[in-house]
């Protein structure tokens, strides 16, 4: 049953579904969190982002003076994310929404006035400059340094960031850098607005197994930031990062919708693929495996809904988000792995091959699925959090 069925939220869902059908970009959307492939797709993404904000489907939780709705229902944000996923439309860039959350919560009025309107209009895309080669899941170990230039001066930044989605398209970056090397590692980090066009900023797209470049390396060599680039106070970066990330809960429901669509696709393709002269779906072992995966998706949906509702009701626990993330990412990988097994030799055929099943969607889904088990905290980190904070097990 859909969230909000039988309530006014059901009518809101119908409105969102119609809006998405009428306004979403028409280009192919691949598995996972992906960057535009070319300038045309980037312009489509900008226009799509602007449409969602203008309609009040994004940014409704912002303060009213910056375009938010005073009577916003947080569950509406969940519905919007679910319907975008259901339509297989691109999600607006998360880097922009994370930066907006940081600026709304900790930025100056001048920073808000300068940056929030272009985020809403789609004019400025932001990227998230958090992860580093030796600081991914353990973000507090980051080494990028920002050195203060003196009284009233700016900052000089040196370091490297990695796995930066949309780095090649972003106008600004939401940057975390170490400003006090002598403080405990969680205490000496600060948050900054980084103009990606500044001298010393080098973006190098990474070519991935999927054949696309969705992530980037970003090199920062003696980059001079003005004093007003600092968000909040020096040393407040860890608090700001956690606060902005905590606002991004809507994607949990969207992830479940993607799993539901994957099971539907699996059933469709199992009807088309033949094993020993019969449709794969006519074989008992295939039906049982798909049924098992479908049951796990239903369980994931219940877990995700409980996590979301618990968070909104103020009764969430430290393990809710890790459990939902772990369940989704591992199940998503198993579905893609089984799909390739089912396709047999045809599973190696990629997009563009005329004989590829479902235009090579399953190969792309499989190649990207492993990233979900790493991004946002690896499965190993999620299990440690659940064990230590949920079960009270020793470190």
TrEMBL record:
Its cofactor is FAD. The keyword Oxidoreductase applies. SUPFAM superfamilies: Acyl-CoA dehydrogenase C-terminal domain-like, Acyl-CoA dehydrogenase NM domain-like. The keyword Translocase does not apply. Keywords: FAD, Flavoprotein, Oxidoreductase. InterPro entries: Acyl-CoA_Oxase/DH_mid-dom (IPR006091), Acyl-CoA_Oxase/DH_mid-dom_sf (IPR046373), AcylCo_DH-like_C (IPR036250), AcylCo_DH/oxidase_C (IPR009075), AcylCoA_DH/ox_N (IPR013786), AcylCoA_DH/ox_N_sf (IPR037069), AcylCoA_DH/oxidase_NM_dom_sf (IPR009100), Mycobact_Acyl-CoA_DH (IPR052161). Pfam families: Acyl-CoA_dh_1, Acyl-CoA_dh_M, Acyl-CoA_dh_N. Residues 235-390 form the Acyl-CoA dehydrogenase/oxidase C-terminal domain. Residues 10-122 form the Acyl-CoA dehydrogenase/oxidase N-terminal domain. Residues 127-223 form the Acyl-CoA oxidase/dehydrogenase middle domain. Belongs to the acyl-CoA dehydrogenase family. This is Acyl-CoA dehydrogenase family protein. It comes from Streptacidiphilus jeojiensis.
């Amino acid at each position: 049953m859909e969230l909000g069925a039988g309530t006014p939220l059901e009518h809101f869902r119908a409105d969102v579904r119609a809006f998405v059908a009428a306004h979403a970009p028409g280009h192919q959307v691949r598995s996972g969190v992906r960057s535009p492939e070319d300038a045309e797709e980037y312009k489509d993404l900008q226009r799509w982002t602007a449409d969602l904000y203008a309609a009040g489907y994004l940014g409704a939780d912002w303060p009213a003076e910056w375009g938010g709705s005073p009577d916003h229902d947080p569950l509406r944000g969940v519905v919007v994310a679910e319907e975008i996923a259901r339509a297989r439309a691109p999600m607006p860039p998360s880097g922009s929404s994370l930066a907006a959350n940081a600026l709304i919560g900790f930025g100056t009025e001048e920073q808000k006035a300068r940056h929030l309107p272009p985020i809403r209009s789609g004019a400025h895309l932001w990227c998230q400059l958090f992860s580093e080669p030796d600081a991914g899941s353990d973000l507090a170990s980051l080494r990028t340094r920002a050195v203060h230039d003196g009284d009233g001066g700016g900052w000089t930044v040196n370091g490297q960031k990695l796995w930066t989605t949309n780095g090649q398209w972003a106008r600004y970056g939401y940057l975390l850098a170490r400003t006090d090397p002598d403080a405990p590692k969680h205490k000496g980090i600060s948050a900054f607005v980084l103009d990606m066009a500044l001298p010393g900023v080098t973006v190098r797209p990474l070519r991935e197994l999927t054949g696309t470049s969705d992530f980037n390396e970003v090199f920062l060599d003696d980059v001079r930031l003005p004093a007003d680039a600092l968000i909040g106070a020096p040393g407040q970066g860890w608090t700001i990062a956690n606060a902005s990330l905590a606002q991004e809960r809507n994607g949990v429901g969207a992830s479940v919708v993607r799993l539901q669509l994957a099971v539907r696709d699996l059933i469709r393709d199992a009807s088309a693929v033949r094993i020993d002269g019969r449709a794969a779906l006519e074989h008992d072992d295939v039906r049982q495996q798909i049924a098992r995966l479908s049951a796990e998706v239903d369980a994931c949906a219940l877990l995700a809904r409980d996590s979301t509702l618990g968070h909104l009701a103020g009764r969430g626990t430290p393990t809710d988000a890790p459990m939902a993330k772990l369940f989704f990412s591992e199940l998503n990988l198993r579905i893609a792995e089984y799909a390739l097994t089912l396709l047999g030799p045809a599973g190696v055929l990629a997009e563009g091959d005329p004989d590829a099943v479902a235009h090579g969607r399953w190969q792309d889904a499989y190649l990207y699925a492993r990233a979900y088990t790493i991004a946002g905290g690896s499965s190993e980190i999620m299990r440690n959090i659940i064990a230590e904070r949920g079960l009270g097990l020793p470190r």
